[in-house]
Amino acid sequence: MASSKLSIYAALAANLLIAITKFIAGAISNSAAMIAEGVHSVVDTVNELLLLLGLHRSKKQPDAMHPFGYGKELYFWSFIVSIMIFGLGGGVSIYQGITHIIHPEKMGDPTINYIVLSLSIVFEGTSLFIALKQFNQVRGATPWWEAVVKSKDPSSFLVLFEDAAAVAGLFIVIICVYLSHKLNLPYLDGVASLLVGIILIIVSSILARESRSLLMGEGVSTQTREKICHMVEGDDHVVKVQHILSTYQSPSEVLLMLIVAFKDDLDTEEINIAIDRIRDKVKAEFKLVRFVIIQPESLDHHLLWNDDSH
Fold it and tell me: What region holds the Cation efflux protein transmembrane domain (predicted)?
């Protein structure tokens, strides 16, 4: 979480520094691409604030209404961020681009655009470097895309994707601004805005997919399920683990429910002791598992249920 906050603060500072200057440059040079970039920076700034809000609210202590805590607040606000990138960032940029392609306007002096874009690349590039460094520390030896898919902390890769899209957009804009003046083709300014919008929509779709999966109750991996099953079935009093249900409450908290068939000759006290023992072993081995609910169920009942389901 601390590493996520560092990349968020870096991105927030970068976007705040350049958002206003982009709008000023766009107004002076009459550039739709610069206005689109300004909107992009404003959206990114708001996004970072929403991520910080999500991180803050996810730390709230459990209460009567939310006995498992508020960890999913982070997933909710991450999903909102992905929608904002799509609607405000991508949508406005595409609208600006199409408008200026159909009705290209007379171009102003591009000098200020080059200055602002160059500074923006420096600031956004620095933010991207910090976000990439932090993400690499988290993923370790895991392949890059696999780490994104497996990550349960959307704040760790949201900023990374945002910054990458921002840097790509800046290079597109600076190339199109140059070509539009060099070739006297003012509609290229609109093309740049359109391309930036498309990039943002692609990025937002990826982020929305990952955030939605976590918000809807994504569970632990198949490998982890198998390890838990093997550990529990290794207990002398257990016959079989019949079901494993899990969901991430936050990047650092998992709710786990085990439906377990115990040996028939055990009395209630022995089953309760076994449940406490299994719970302690699971929580000791899997540090992210904070809540463990174990429900005893006879093996015959499980087989009967399976037969009925067919």
Answer: 9-216
